[in-house]
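Exam prep: given the inputs below (a chain plus nicotinamide-adenine-dinucleotide), describe the expected output before reading on.
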Amino acid sequence: MDLKGKTAIVTGSNSGIGLGVVRELARAGADVVLNSFTDRDEDHDLARAIGDEFGVTARYIRADLSKGDEARKLIEDSGRCDILMNNAGIQHVAGIEDFPTERWDAIIAIMLSSAFHTAAVAVPMMREQGWGRIINLASAHGLRASPYKSAYVAAKHGVVGLTKVIALETAQDPITANAICPGYVMTPLVEDQIPDTMKKYDMDRETAIKEVILERQPSKDFATVEQIGGVATFLCSAAAAQITGTTISVDGGWTAR
Ligand code: NAD
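Solution:
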């Protein structure tokens, strides 16, 4: 795999899956743009460290993806966009009657609307450059529902639908658009759910993970961020040039059930 000369922008990439994907794309030679909305010194140090480790250009650009104009500016300020991965995400768990409106709005904005805004700027750039790969990080929850995750499930189903539309609109361009649908990957987003799950079910950590969190994942194991990065890298390969408008599940058998 040789992605030298390509620039990859990965949203929400100072931790978890996004960081794993950035590292795998950089390992394949791509220049990378990291993003989050925290803008701490460590975010810039992280970009520098990745650049040094893989011998690529790595930059950090702060953008709050809950705001459409900042999502668009992220792509514009990157100057070039060959690979776009929409990955930033947040979660909230509550029944529909108690779901805070501001959390609904934030989840839809960060996970769904930002993917629309970034693609709106990236697609014309990719057309002009003559090559492009759009990879949207959806979820098994983009294909299956779970109770108490209304905004997350709605946003991820929306991301899958949006991906298919982008694929159809770019089908005759050298551009592909696909969604990766992981089951559970051990990242800070999942780590945050563990204490509440332990408390709610009065379980120790290991039991809460196996019996509640991984309940629907037949493999009973988490995917790794490197595995998600590997799938993203594959989608950028020549072998994947005709793969567009589809979902690739990395879910230990969850959606096979
Ligand atoms: P994470 O918390 O490590 O990463 C989320 C990222 O989003 C962080 O980098 C954070 O800074 C960024 N972010 C949050 N709000 C933002 C905003 N307003 N603007 C810009 N960036 C923002 O969690 P993760 O598990 O790595 O999640 C990454 C993606 O993978 C999410 O879309 C999540 O829904 C999806 N996903 C995760 C799992 C899993 O099991 N971890 C499974 C399926 C899908």
